[in-house]
Design a protein that fits this description.
Blueprint: E1 2-5, E2 10-15, H1 20-29, H2 31-34, E3 38-41, H3 43-53, E4 57-59, H4 67-76, E5 82-86, H5 96-108, E6 113-114, H6 117-124, E7 133-136
Parallel strand pairs: 2-3, 2-5, 3-4, 5-6
Antiparallel strand pairs: 1-7
Helix pairs in contact: 1-3, 4-5
Length: 157
């Protein structure tokens, strides 16, 4: 089964404290693309994107206070199409288990995930950003076979 991502994507933007400046710089550089989409963020990241860049952002709670879990729920419910999460791999975080759960659900739901500027650059500059895209939905039972029509391509243009 395929799920359609419309031309206007629903993008979640998150950054750990040590990466917030990086996210702001990246978002400023890509503001012309981001304004064409619906943006979500955890509280502090969203507040910075609103204040410093004037972006329209719907905010969840702060990451350590349940925001990461809220983003994960939004992904599972189909309310977020992809995740840009500039996370700090070198610092311990009190909510590491929440981050792991968020990454697990993003992977299980087969959405694009960018964890740093380079991967975010590749995603945001993809021609798929301005067109609809059908992504393969992961079956409820990930260990069972995925049903595809014969000749159905794995990658769609």
């Amino acid at each position: 089964m395929y799920l359609e991502m419309p031309e206007v994507k629903k993008i979640a933007l998150i950054a750990h404290d040590n990466c917030k400046l990086d996210l702001l710089e990246w978002a400023a550089w890509n503001r012309h693309v981001l304004v064409q989409h619906q943006l979500f963020a955890t509280r502090t990241s969203g507040a910075l994107l609103k204040k410093d860049l004037g972006l329209e952002v719907d905010c969840f709670r702060s990451g350590p206070l349940g925001g990461d879990q809220q983003v994960g729920a939004a992904i599972a419910e189909g309310r977020v199409d992809f995740l840009i999460f500039f996370w700090d791999p070198l610092s311990p975080h009190s909510h590491d288990v929440d981050v792991k759960a968020l990454m697990r659900i993003a992977t299980a739901c087969n959405i694009p995930v960018a964890c740093n500027r380079a991967s975010a650059d590749f995603i945001i500059t993809s021609p798929l950003m301005s067109s609809s895209y059908e992504r393969l939905a992961i079956a409820e039972d990930m260990h069972g076979p995925l049903e595809r029509d014969a000749g159905d391509p794995v990658l769609r243009p």
